[in-house]
Design the sequence.
């Protein structure tokens, strides 16, 4: 099973009608679409991406699926956007997904970076409801990817010490496979 499928499998068993969820790296909107399907008509999804073209692509995907009414799109760095959501008391979120790196087929210099990713992960834990899930897929093959993946790993090991349940999934098949971290808030 690919890691994106694993994320969807884990969250299918967790998300329910009326939940709130956040896609912190919307990209082409595949994860946003999945979250929107899971939370149902009374749920809400916030899709964040730093690039206009990604947000346009996400919006189009959700419009085509007829699910845009339950999605708010935000063009901003996710660390900043998530901190604003904390200020607005937007808490009790059931799930937050991060699929790090760059948008396939787009400008590879626009990629997630260790420092803002770490800030965004810290904000995510605050936004989650107890029992809520934070799923982070990190890629190590591109420039900056290994450092970012190590930052995510350190963040997750520390979160485990603080009492959250943390699992790591690492496929065995390739030399530098992506890593999926799944945190369940205590
Ligand atoms: C691997 S793609 C995400 C793919 C997406 N999950 C999907 O289903 O299509 C990573 C995305 O992160 C976005 N990104 C990079 N830096 C960011 C940041 N600081 N804040 C928010 N998004 C960022 C990129 O623009 C890119 O669209």
Sequence:
């Amino acid at each position: 099973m690919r890691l994106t499928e694993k994320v969807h499998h884990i969250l299918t068993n967790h998300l329910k009608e009326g939940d709130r969820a956040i896609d912190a790296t919307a990209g082409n909107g595949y994860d946003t679409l999945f979250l929107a399907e899971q939370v149902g008509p009374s749920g809400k999804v916030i899709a964040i991406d730093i690039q206009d073209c990604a947000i346009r692509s996400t919006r189009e995907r959700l419009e085509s699926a007829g699910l845009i009414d339950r999605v708010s799109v935000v063009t901003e760095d996710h660390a900043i956007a998530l901190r604003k959501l904390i200020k607005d008391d937007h808490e009790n979120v059931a799930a937050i997904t991060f699929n790090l790196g760059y948008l396939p087929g787009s400008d590879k210099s626009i990629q997630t970076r260790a420092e803002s990713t770490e800030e965004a992960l810290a904000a995510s834990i605050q936004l989650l409801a107890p029992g809520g899930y934070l799923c982070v897929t990190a890629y190590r093959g591109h420039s900056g990817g290994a450092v970012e993946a190590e930052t995510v790993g350190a963040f997750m090991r520390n979160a485990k010490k603080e009492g959250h349940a943390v699992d790591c999934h690492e496929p065995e098949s390739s030399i530098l496979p992506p890593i999926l971290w799944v945190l369940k808030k205590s």
